[in-house]
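Whether sequence alone determines local backbone shape is best considered at the level of individual chains. When preparing material for the folding task, we compiled for one chain both its residues and its backbone structure tokens. No coordinates are needed to read the tokens, only the vocabulary itself. For completeness, the protein is quoted in full, as a sequence line and a line of structure tokens:
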Amino acid sequence: MGDTGKNGNPQPLANSDSPPKPVFRRILLKLSGEALEGDQGFGLDPATLESIALQIKRVHSLGVDVALVVGGGNIIRGSVVEKSGIERSVGDYMGMLATVINALALQSTLENAGVPTRVLTAINMSEIGEPFIPRRAERHLEKRRVIIFAAGTGNPYFTTDTAAALRAMEIKADVIVKATKVDGIYDSDPMVNKDARLFQKLTYLEVLEKGLKVMDSTAISLCMDNRMPIIVCNLLDSGTIEEIVLGSKVGTLVSE
């Protein structure tokens, strides 16, 4: 029997079977292009795309607004092609087009899973995506659509990390979830050093001072100036993103 209330009547016990409630109303999920290649080492892996789509579907079904920024490193990197003699700005635009390819692949996989999705691009290409307009993005989220931001910021010399920070501010996200292939931020590369130490929490300044390669310095500074928290987690663990939105301490939190 429950506790006795003010009127002397027994009060019912809380229902332990009630579904957990999300602690975040709106998230921006940052995916690297490499996260989409699976074990192939290049391109797009259908099984990985499907796994990501199902994770997003579960989070979306909890009532959380989801926006994505995707990179293009599984196809091309502007900073890499520059070494072959291609002008850096041209290489960066090539990289932006690669992010559009990834965005379309994610859109198709999400919609096959029953999740309504829109691609918004920073470079105008109306046949395959809508131009990015903040109010339009907000409207899509209000209509419970997942939105995928493609083509970075639309400007060379800016990474998709910076695009993620910028878009998170513009849509008033509660948090940036940076999904990687490791469990969070380490003091050294855990793939090389088996004794690498995982950080549970870091401040923005600690990330900058230690030179930790979680996001580029422009993105970290933008998040610091606007108090946008970042959670770095492992995308390969299929329940990670859902655990984060439900309040579990997963990965590494970067905040003030």
